[in-house]
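User: Just a sanity check before I run the rest of the batch. Below are the structure tokens for the first item. I only need the designed sequence back.
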């Protein structure tokens, strides 16, 4: 697991990720909870919550939130945002989604913005799903998304990108191993210091490409029933041309 990338990205992450529509995404998640859960969803675990981009909107929808992330730096940004907003009822946990412990069970869980692709080791997805099965009450629902095989083959591939916003820039070079289904991202982040100088950090991160079949099999083996495999927030069925799939799975 490469967590260094998020240590380097944490300060500028929200600015570089400002175009993602988290409010519509939160509504979609809430709709999935209402449609597929057999129990009332009150407590929700946000796996790989990062700076809380989805934790806060779900809290606004009246869910009791737990945000869990392996990166202390990402969680620090989340905590600062919570302080600024006067929010003190979110439990932030610095833990690994392959090996976490909660104080009790939840009725819903999410993992948003390709957190599941970050589980690039062969057994990591199984470990994470097994733990989710332990902590989600029977009938509760896990909603997550993945970058699709099409996105790995076309958008990521061996392409280079530059992301920039005020006082932060990220140069992003990809190397996609098609045989292993693993994409390595080489990231160089420049952040402007308060004295006008720039700080450079070089880091690496990996994501695994999961096929639909692989995800469905892993969910089934961990004790989940796939309720929906969607290509968008409008709940349309996923297909091979999608860049992101949204999956809702019920804990049996
Ligand atoms: C693409 S970011 C998404 C963050 C947040 N969900 C969002 O939508 O902005 C992926 C997050 O997963 C976290 N992460 C990666 N591997 C992890 C692991 N093994 N356990 C917990 N968190 C992990 C990273 O630290 C990062 O914050």
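Assistant: Here's the designed sequence for the first item:
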């Amino acid at each position: 697991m490469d967590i260094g990338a998020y240590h380097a990205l944490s300060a500028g992450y929200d600015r570089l990720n400002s175009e993602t529509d988290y409010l519509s995404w939160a509504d979609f998640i809430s709709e999935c909870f209402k449609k597929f859960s057999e129990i009332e969803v009150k407590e929700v675990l946000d796996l790989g919550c990062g700076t809380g981009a989805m934790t806060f909107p779900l809290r606004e929808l009246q869910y009791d939130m737990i945000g869990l992330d392996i990166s202390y730096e990402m969680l620090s940004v989340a905590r600062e945002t919570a302080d600024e907003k006067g929010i003190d009822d979110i439990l932030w946990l610095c833990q690994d989604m392959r090996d976490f412990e909660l104080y009790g069970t939840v009725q819903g869980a999410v993992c948003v913005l390709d957190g599941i692709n970050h589980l690039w080791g062969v057994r990591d997805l199984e470990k994470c799903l097994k733990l989710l099965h332990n902590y989600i009450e029977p009938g509760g629902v896990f909603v997550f998304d993945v970058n699709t095989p099409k996105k790995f083959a076309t958008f990521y591939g061996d392409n280079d990108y530059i992301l920039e916003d005020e006082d932060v820039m990220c140069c992003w070079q990809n190397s996609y191993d098609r045989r292993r289904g693993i994409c390595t991202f080489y990231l160089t982040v420049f952040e402007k210091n308060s004295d006008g100088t720039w700080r450079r950090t070089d880091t690496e991160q990996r994501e695994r490409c999961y096929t639909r079949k692989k995800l469905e099999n892993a969910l089934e083996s961990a004790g989940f029933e796939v309720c929906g495999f969607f290509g968008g927030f409008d709940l349309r069925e996923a297909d091979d041309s999608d860049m992101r799939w949204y999956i809702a799975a019920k804990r049996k």
